[in-house]
């Protein structure tokens, strides 16, 4: 019985951490979609820091999105007999036509040492590509 109660309590905590606010119909919503076992977080909109790193929600119009992407460079891209290297990169993406009530998806990944991110619309069309602003090793948390 104790195990059941503990499992129930832990699962309810996980649900709170995953709770997302309801999208504002007067703004555009941008979901974050990293590839594989990587981490993509929202950092800023128009150089203003965000309170929640899990998504972007912006007014209609033109905006610059700032994000942080963490991924590993595999041994095949580092060198023979090497271990994988962790990368922590900053990227920015500019898009001029965010629409109210529309949902967008920001997808990120890496090619070797280089990160990439693309903004997609609801019909899986690529709308914009991010620019790398700098990378380093992963900082300790």
What does this structure look like?
With 141 residues, the protein is mostly beta strands. The chain has one domain (21-136). 15% of the residues lie in helices and 52% in strands. The chain is built from 2 helices and 10 strands; from the N terminus they run αβββββαβββββ. It has helices at residues 2-18, 75-78, and strands spanning 28-34, 39-45, 48-49, 55-58, 61-73, 85-98, 103-111, 114-120, 126-129, 131-136. The strands form 2 sheets. Strands 4-1-7-8-9 form a 5-stranded mixed beta sheet, with no helix packed on it. Strands 3-2-5-6-10 form a 5-stranded antiparallel beta sheet. The longest helix is centred in the N-terminal third of the chain and has 17 residues, at 2-18. It is elongated and about 55 Å long. The N and C termini lie far apart (35 Å). The relative contact order is 0.19. Residues 1-17 have low confidence and may be disordered. It comes from Stutzerimonas zhaodongensis. This is Lipoprotein. Keywords: Signal.
């Amino acid at each position: 019985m104790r195990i059941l109660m503990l499992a129930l309590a832990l699962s309810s905590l996980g649900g709170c951490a995953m709770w997302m606010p309801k999208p504002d119909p007067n703004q555009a919503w941008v979901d974050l979609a990293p590839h594989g076992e990587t981490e993509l977080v929202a950092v800023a909109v128009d150089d203003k820091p965000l309170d929640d790193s899990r998504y972007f929600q912006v007014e209609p119009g033109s905006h610059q999105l700032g994000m942080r992407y963490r991924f590993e460079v595999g041994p095949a891209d580092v060198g023979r007999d090497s271990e994988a290297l962790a990368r922590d990169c900053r990227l920015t993406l500019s898009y001029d036509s965010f629409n109210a009530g529309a949902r967008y998806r920001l997808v990120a990944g890496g090619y070797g040492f280089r990160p990439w991110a693309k903004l997609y619309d609801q019909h899986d069309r690529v709308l914009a590509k991010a620019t790398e602003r700098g990378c380093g090793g992963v900082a300790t948390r």
